[in-house]
Design brief:
By secondary structure, this protein is an alpha/beta fold. The protein has two domains: 131 residues, Glucose-regulated metallo-peptidase M90, N-terminal domain (Cyclin A, domain 1, Orthogonal Bundle), CATH 1.10.472.150; 87 residues, Collagenase (Catalytic Domain) (3-Layer(aba) Sandwich), CATH 3.40.390. Helix content is 54%, strand content 12%. It is built from eleven helices and six strands. The strands form two sheets. The protein has a four-stranded mixed beta sheet with strand order 1-2-6-5. It has a two-stranded antiparallel ribbon with strand order 3-4. Helix 4 packs across helix 5. The longest helix is centred in the N-terminal third of the chain and has 32 residues. The protein is globular and about 50 Å long. The protein starts with a helix and ends in an 8-residue tail after the last helix. Belongs to the MtfA family. This is Mlc titration factor A. GO terms for molecular function: aminopeptidase activity; metallopeptidase activity. InterPro entries: MetalloPept_cat_dom_sf (IPR024079), MtfA_fam (IPR010384), MtfA_N (IPR042252).
């Protein structure tokens, strides 16, 4: 009996703590949103993010509010001597929050830090071949998303991606698509969808498009998607997300079913932004 009461009390305490934690988070966000969007931040949006002007007025307002919450909750760290400025913070936050528009969101709840390097950075890793042999590798990267709460970005590549919103290449969008994919624990190309029945259609459409890209990459056939998307389903989701936001008309023309899945997931229709 005592054990049962102890378990019950523990459960009630945990529920009370979770409830108070959510209440504190909501109260803090409301305080953040009660403040006006800084004029200096608006200037950064105009200077660095051409896509912002294409958004409908309601989405511009929503994006600015998302940026306020994002910057209040996420910690930026400069690497290799880079000094973090509002220009860096706002430029990254705006592109990351583009993926959250019109959606119920907790603002990348697992994400704690954004590490920013001046340029592309080197990552040492190990790779095991089918025979079990492990080899050391050095990769030069523009961005990386980690499951345990970090995104790493090159500031140079971030600026290049922001400056041309129509080329289908955006490192911030790519890495934060991975963050969405990782919210259920690991990246597999299937983020958390709105309804259980959505997964069947998602799986069918994405598997077909992924297999087509794998074939195109193997044959050297031109594709709307970067061949890097053929690496695995997680990379494919990140790559097609870049194309969805930056080349929506071409995506809808060549892969209408894939465009519909992404539009349903992201709850936006970027064709109408152009």
């Amino acid at each position: 009996m005592l054990a049962i009461l102890t378990i019950l009390l523990f459960g009630l305490s945990a529920m009370a703590w979770l409830g108070s934690s959510r209440w504190r988070k909501t109260r803090h966000r409301n305080r953040v949103l009660a403040s006006p969007f800084p004029k200096a931040w608006r200037a950064i949006l105009k200077r660095r993010l051409p896509f912002f002007h294409a958004l409908p007025a309601d989405l511009q307002l929503q994006l600015k509010r998302h940026i306020q919450v994002f910057l209040a909750e996420k910690h930026f760290v400069g690497c290799d001597g880079l000094q973090i400025t509002d220009e860096i913070r706002v430029t990254i936050a705006a592109q990351a929050c583009l993926l959250l528009l019109n959606r119920k969101t907790d603002f990348y709840p697992k994400l704690r830090q954004i590490l920013v390097y001046p340029d592309a950075f080197i990552v040492d890793s190990q790779r095991q071949d089918p025979a079990g042999l492990i080899s050391e590798q050095r990769n030069v990267l523009a961005g990386e998303s980690w499951e345990h709460g970090q995104v790493i970005l090159s500031w140079k590549n971030t600026l290049e991606g922001a400056a041309n919103p129509h080329d289908g290449n955006n490192v911030v969008i790519h890495e934060f698509a991975h963050q969405l994919d990782q919210e259920d624990g690991y990246a597999n190309g299937a983020p958390i969808l709105q309804r259980r029945q959505d997964y069947r259609s998602w799986s069918s459409v994405f598997n077909q498009a992924f297999n087509e890209l794998v074939h195109d990459a193997a044959m050297g056939k031109p594709s709307l998607f970067d061949y890097y998307g053929a690496t695995n389903p997680a990379e494919f989701f990140a790559v097609v997300t870049e194309v969805f936001f930056e080349k929506p008309a071409a995506l809808n023309l060549e892969h209408p079913a894939l465009y519909r899945e992404l539009s349903h997931f992201y709850q936006v229709d970027p064709i109408n932004w152009r």
